[in-house]
UniProtKB/TrEMBL annotation:
Keyword terms: ATP-binding, Nucleotide-binding, Transport
UniProt cross-references to PANTHER family, sorted A to Z: METAL TRANSPORT SYSTEM ATP-BINDING PROTEIN TM_0124-RELATED
Pfam family, one: ABC_tran
Keyword DNA-binding carried by entry: no
PROSITE patterns xrefs: ABC_TRANSPORTER_2
Signal peptide: none
Protein name according to UniProt: Iron ABC transporter ATP-binding protein
Source organism: Agromyces bauzanensis
Domain ABC transporter, chain residue ranges per copy: 6-246
Length: 263
């Protein structure tokens, strides 16, 4: 049965006297896959940081995996959360092998030192690499991979610990069309599996929303414009309000496209 993985009540984050997030009330179920869209500076990454138990709200309450931030030991919580972001990728040593890049997630480190890996972790790492289209890459150096391959390694690393919540911050940013489509296809397969964890993905482009995603939040100036099931929340009207220009949204076979509406 589905449980609640995130429960935010009236969450605000204030920096230098300015609200970066402003009274966010939001709930995410274990069987939901959310996309978060909004202009630059809307607060999307800040929202993910709270979901990752990496930041506390200035005001309001945030429960992550049914534990209240501020009352729980975040070091116990974080291994249950997978987080793939460019900031995380920067910490991966360029000369690390792809296998070690994924394996080290099981020990919450980046960069192999002297850990003795268990056979079970090795088997899981190889399975995860295969799932993300990376078989044959295990011995390659992370820094020698293309952008698209590196993005897939980051996601493989973030699911290595079998998390209950998977957070993806712009996983398709900077990818060429072929690499983007490959990633969207893999994410779509993953999102559609009932065995997968709850997923929250931040993106700038509706074209990057994988099939199988169920919910959307549109965020502007730290506030929710709309949030709910994809078909209700992701509309031309809501995108127009969020981005402040007339936008026309189209959908075909669970894939979306958006452009400025004709005057
Ligand atoms: N530590 C901080 N101190 C002051 N302002 C901050 C701090 N962290 C973030 N901000 C500001 O908060 C706002 C929201 O930032 P955030 O990175 O969450 O937005 P975003 O929606 O992810 O943006 P982008 O799409 O550009 O990545 C931005 O205006 C940013 O400059």
């Amino acid at each position: 049965m589905a449980s609640t993985v995130l429960e935010f009540h009236d969450v605000s984050v204030v920096r230098d006297g300015n609200p970066i997030l402003d009274s966010i009330t939001w709930s995410v179920g274990s069987d939901e896959r959310w996309v978060i869209l909004g202009p630059n500076g809307a607060g999307k990454t800040t929202l993910l940081q709270i979901a990752a138990a990496a930041m506390h709200p200035t005001k309001g309450t945030a429960d992550v995996l049914q534990e209240a931030l501020g009352k729980v030991d975040v070091f116990e919580l974080r291994p249950m959360i997978g987080f793939a972001s460019t900031a995380m990728a920067r910490k991966i040593p360029k000369n690390e092998s792809v296998l070690d890049t994924v394996l080290t997630a099981a020990y919450s480190v980046t960069g192999r030192w002297n850990e003795e890996y268990e056979e079970i972790d090795l088997r899981r790492a190889h399975r995860v690499l295969k799932e993300w289209g990376l078989e044959g890459f295990a011995e390659r150096r992370f820094g020698s991979l293309s952008d698209g391959e590196q993005k897939r390694v980051q996601i493989a690393r973030s699911v290595m610990t079998d998390p209950e919540l998977l957070l993806l911050d712009e996983p398709a940013a900077s990818l060429d069309l072929g690499a983007r489509e490959e990633l969207v296809g893999l994410l779509g397969g993953y999102a559609s599996s009932p065995a997968s964890p709850a997923i929250i993905m931040v993106t700038h482009h509706v074209e990057e929303i994988p099939p199988g995603f169920t919910h959307a939040m549109l965020l502007a100036h730290g506030k929710i414009v709309t949030a709910g099931p994809l078909a209700e929340a992701l509309t031309s009207e809501a995108l127009t309000e969020t981005f402040g220009i007339p936008i026309e949204l189209t959908e075909r076979d669970q894939r979306y496209a958006a452009r400025a509406a004709a005057a």
